[in-house]
Amino acid sequence: MKLVLGTRGSELALAQARMAELALRERCNADVQIEVVRTSGDKGAREAGRKGVFTAELEYALLDGRIDVAVHSAKDIPSEMQRGLTIAAVLPRAPVEDLLITRQAASSGLRTVATGSVRRQHQLRFFRGLKYVADLRGNVPTRLRKFTASDWDGIVLARAGLERLGFSPPRFEFEGQQFFAEILPMETFVPAGGQGIIAMQTREKDAAMISAADENAVHCCLRAEREFLRLLGGDCGTPVGAHARWVNGEMELCVQLFAGDSEPTMACARGTGSEQIAMEAFNQIRPSAAAATLRREGQR
Prior knowledge:
Blueprint: E1 2-7, H1 11-28, E2 31-36, H2 56-63, E3 69-73, E4 85-90, E5 98-102, E6 112-114, H3 118-127, E7 132-134, H4 140-148, E8 154-158, H5 159-164, E9 171-174, E10 177-183, E11 198-203, H6 216-232, E12 240-247, E13 250-257, E14 265-271, H7 274-299
Parallel strand pairs: 1-2, 1-3, 6-7, 6-8
Antiparallel strand pairs: 3-11, 4-11, 5-8, 5-10, 9-10, 12-13, 13-14
């Protein structure tokens, strides 16, 4: 079976595509060709809150038959996909935590930290007491270079992306600069839904051809996180975290939502069905969700 695997062209995206390629070769006996597709996000056309900025062109390439499988960071895929497409398989989940990257070993007394994530901005302000959170865009190497050239005290990056590029906590070196990496606790810095997961998207009618590459337990967790985000109506402009994991044979979904500058609302639900626990978590957090929606609409 020959498959054309579509991916973004960043260093991290290509590393993730090679991981997907290996899984498809080993588990589906596929002959894989990688094709780079440039997305709006890669072209710099990123707009806060815009859904699918890193995925839309890959989805179009799937729909028009130019590629057979699209490789994504699962957190980039909108909770409601283009009709006719599905997430057919996911790879084993990497560590899901966020990392606080600094140039000094001690991370106390920080004044300005940069991140492009609205969720992380709220978490830094509330849990670390930061008054100044700068905006940060670009792929991982670009963000590290911007940090090196700035007067910021730190930046926040996903642990999974750094480790896939060969950089691990507690310290690493990049282009001659030494960095220190503090793992932020998931209890307060709840990760984005889908964080740490590489997802393979196909046309619905072709999903079975790569089903052998799917990590089912991880996929169930991803479904719960994505269903919660769908119920919430959240996008990349929503300060929300969602993380599911298996605990003693049950799935546990923990979510966190900021409705303003006050303390976030937290909720957890347990069960065996992805949709069931997503609905339970959403019902617990519904009042705060309504407040967050009104706040976002008032800012438009």
